[in-house]
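hey can u check if this looks right to u? its 248 residues, i copy pasted from the old doc so theres a chance i mangled smth
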Amino acid sequence: MTYCLGIKLKEGLVAIADTRLTSGTETTTGKKLFVIQKGRHSMFIMTSGLRSVRDKALTYFREVIEESDAKHNKMYKAVNAFAQQLRRVALEDRAALEASGLRFNLNAIVGGQLEDDEEHKLFMLYPEGNWVEIGEGAPFVIIGNSGYGKPILDRTITPETPLKIALKTGFLSFDSTRVSANDVEFPIDVILYKKGSYQFVEHRFQKEDVANISENWGKALRENIRNMPEDWMNTMLDKMEHSNATSY
């Protein structure tokens, strides 16, 4: 499985991807965050799904970009181009994969800003090649193992959230997933993009880099639960005590 998170804010973009690769009972580390950085073309792709499908689609897409980069002056055009290559791989490999019991299941998060985009963009791309743009109504998207890390994002992230706070929240979302799922793990690759800069800042965090953050978060969460108001529980607790008293 995978954990990839993309967040679109008024200030810019945040992208976080884990690196755990699972094949049967074996686990390895591999990059799931592909970056194109060339002049006023800044674009990233994160993927979840079969590695062979991802590698082939990205290889085809690299060729398209190298041969006709000037045509892709807006993000939606680049997303369409990647979708075309994904459909190409589907035509070539889907039948054989499904005959072997494997699903053609590549999902992708694509983000960035190209020279004629008025602002930075974020897209969710489905295995069929169709896509949706991530906007103010729902400013983030997760692919892969999404259940454990989504609640904290729902409670915290809005388009006005500062990049720094979004990065903190994104890490806690990943960490919640890592604690609950054995197929998501460090290291994590992180990208920050400030609007209009046409320049990504990319960094890989190892587990030891943020171990204290994870520990402090767990401790603070336990303390907050202990310190929660309990008035709302009194009626039920009284019933329990009364029931215990009358059962003898």
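Residues 210-248 form one domain.
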